[in-house]
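>> Question from a student workshop board

For tomorrow's exercise we were told to take the sequence and the ligand below, predict the bound structure, and bring the output to class. My setup keeps failing. Could a helper post the expected result so I can at least see what it should look like? The ligand is nicotinamide-adenine-dinucleotide.
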Amino acid sequence: MQTLNVNLGDRSYPIHIGSGILARTGELLNQVGLSGKVAIVTNPTVAQFYLEPIQAALSKAGFTAVPILLPDGEAHKNSISLQMIYDRLIAERFERKSSILALGGGVVGDLAGFAAATYLRGVPYVQVPTTLLAHVDSSVGGKTGVNHADGKNLIGAFYQPKLVLIDIAVLKTLPRRELIAGLAEVIKYGVIEDTALFGLLEQQIDKLVQLDSDLLSQTIATSCAIKAKVVEADEREDDYRAVLNFGHTIGHALEAVTGYTELLHGEAVGVGMVKAAALSMRQGFCDQISFDRIVRLIGKAGLPTEIPGKVSLASLIQAMEVDKKAAGGKIKFVMCEGIGKTRFHHLAPSEILAALSA
Ligand SMILES: NC(=O)c1ccc[n+]([C@@H]2O[C@H](COP(=O)([O-])OP(=O)(O)OC[C@H]3O[C@@H](n4cnc5c(N)ncnc54)[C@H](O)[C@@H]3O)[C@@H](O)[C@H]2O)c1
Ligand SMILES: [Zn+2]
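>> Workshop helper replied:
Here is what the output should look like for this input. Compare the format with yours to find the bug.
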C-alpha cells in the first residue's frame, strides 16, 4: 500500500492506494480517529460485490455499519437520493461523531459527500471509490453535490473527506467502457501537468486497460498527486484549479446536447481534449507534433476523438455559453502549450465556432 497526503492544514487527509486494501477499511478509519456508527452509502450494482467485504472489515474494527442503498445512475444524483440518505441517518440516530462512507463511483461519492457536508452541519466522511474516474478524480478534492433539473452539479459544497481508500482490485468488475472513460482523466493529467506520465501512457496504455496492477497503482498515484497539488494550491477554484477543466468546456457541452445519455463523461472529455488541443494549436499555443500525440493517445485508449455527426456546432456553442464558466460574453478555456503545460485564454463563441468548423 502506498500513501499520499492532501495538505490542507487542519483539513488534510491521506489517500491510500493498494490492491486488496478494502479488507483494511476498519483499521484505516480508526487511524484517522473514526469509530462508532458508519453509514455505507452505495448502490445495488456496487453492493453486490463489495458491501459484504466492507461490512466485515468494519465490524472487525468495532464499527456499527448501516448500509444505505441508492438507485444507480447519474439520473439519481439528485435531491431525492439525498433525502433518502438524510431520512436513514435521522432514523438511525446518527450523531456528529458518526461518519459516512461513500462506496461507489463519482455519483455515490458526490451524493454521500454532500450529505456529509450538510447533515448536522457536517459529519466526517470517507471516500472508497470504485471506478477509475473516481480513483483518479472525483474522490479527491472535496467537491460534493447533486444535480438540479436545470443543470449538473448546481447544488453543492466544498467538503473534504477524512480519508480516501483506493483499492485497485475493485476495477476487475468495472465494465470496460467505464474503465476507458476513466482513462480520459488520466490522459488529461498528462497533458496539463506531466510529460513523463503522458509518455508512459503512450508506451503502456494497453497494459492499463488489461489492469496491470503495478502500472495501475503507479498511474493512479501520479494522477492523485497531481490532483492533490492543484487542490492544495486553489481548493475552491478561484482560478488555478480550473486547469482540471482541460477538455471539459466542450466535453460538458457535448454531454448536455446529447442529453447525458449517449456519451460517458470521459468519452465526452476525450473529444473535448482533442478539440481543446485543436483550438490551442489554432491560437498558436500548441505545436502540431504535440497535437498529433494527444489525438493519437486518446484514440489509442479507445476514446472517441470526433464530435458525433448529428451534433450541430451551433447547439454545442449555445451549451457552452450557458455553462457556468462563461463570463463577459467570452468563454474561459484551458489551452495546452504542448504537453505538460497550460494557460487560460478567453475566446468568443465565434472564434470557437470557426475552429470547430475548420
Ligand atoms: N467531485 C468531483 O470532483 C468530481 C469529478 C469528476 C466527476 N464527478 C462526478 O462523478 C460522476 C461520474 O462518476 P463515475 O464515472 O464514477 O460514474 P458512476 O458513479 O455512475 O459509476 C459508473 C457505473 O459503474 C458502476 N460501478 C461503480 N464501481 C463499479 C465496480 N467496481 N464494478 C462494477 N460496477 C461499478 C456504477 O454503479 C455505475 O453504474 C458524475 O456525476 C460527475 O459529476 C465528480
Ligand atoms: Zn472530468
